[in-house]
Amino acid sequence: MLKLISQCLIVLLLLADFAVAKEFQWSGYQWRTRPTSDRTMGPGKNLWSDEEQNIFIDDDGNLHLKITQNAAGKWVCAEVMLVDSLTYGTYEFELSSRYDTLAKNSVVGLFTYISPASVARKTGGIIGNDVPDTPHEIDIEMTRAWGDANLFFTTHDPDVQSPSHGFYQPLSGNETTHRFTWRPREIRWSSFHGHVAGQANPSDPIIEQRSNENHGKPASVQYTGPVIPKDLDEKLMINFWIFNETKPEPVPSDGKIQELIVHSFRFTPLAD
């Protein structure tokens, strides 16, 4: 009986978290917030909040995600996701804030996600077999926490090293556009200066500035390897969080409030 009561309490706690999630319309889609919680959860073992100081839409229709301190002085992060799953196609994000001047350990995530366990259940893949048969996430990430790059294109499977490509260029303005096109056997990523969603060949790409084999080349990657997710019931997410490895609690490296401004999201399904 005690075990049953304990299990019921766990279920109620989980339902309570879900019940307070908020939904809103933005950029032509229905979105859901990650609800406020006093329990740390990944990524980064962070606290999360969907209070107005962390997630809001301004008068110009821009979506703001902020990392702030709550009433207890704890740093809290923000995340939203689409209510409905999309499919293969082009995902584009227009930003209206600079990611190169954020705290070094803050992370912007623009990505599709489904849990590896769900992939395994739906496809027959096996977790823990060192084989990339449960790919589950396509990422565009902005951070300076992982070396000398500040823009990353990545796809994930828990059983193999994630194929990842990093780029670095200081920005000259607030407006950038980031996109990936997801096909059954290919993912293509690219990033540009300005708001250029919907344009076939934007003229001002982000350019690698480091002295490496990609110096002077556009931030553009084509991937055709095995870590390409299948079209299941993945959800598109946007999150803004603190990467934390050493401190007891996640704290922005500059100790300041962080803000991400997303001007728009655009999805274009693959042509028949």
Automatic annotation (TrEMBL):
* Family indicated by similarity: Belongs to the glycosyl hydrolase 16 family.
Name this polypeptide is given: GH16 domain-containing protein
Stored PROSITE patterns: GH16_2
Q: Where is the GH16 domain?
A: 27-270
SUPFAM superfamilies in the cross-refs: Concanavalin A-like lectins/glucanases
Task: Give the record's GO biological process terms.
Answer: carbohydrate metabolic process
Task: Please report the organism this UniProt entry assigns to the protein.
Answer: Rubripirellula amarantea
Cite the residue spans of the region called Disordered.
198-226
The cross-references to InterPro entries, in alphabetical order and at most eight, read: Beta-glucanase-like, ConA-like_dom_sf
Q: Which domain of life is it from?
A: Bacteria
Q: Which molecular-function annotation in GO is an example for this chain?
A: hydrolase activity, hydrolyzing O-glycosyl compounds
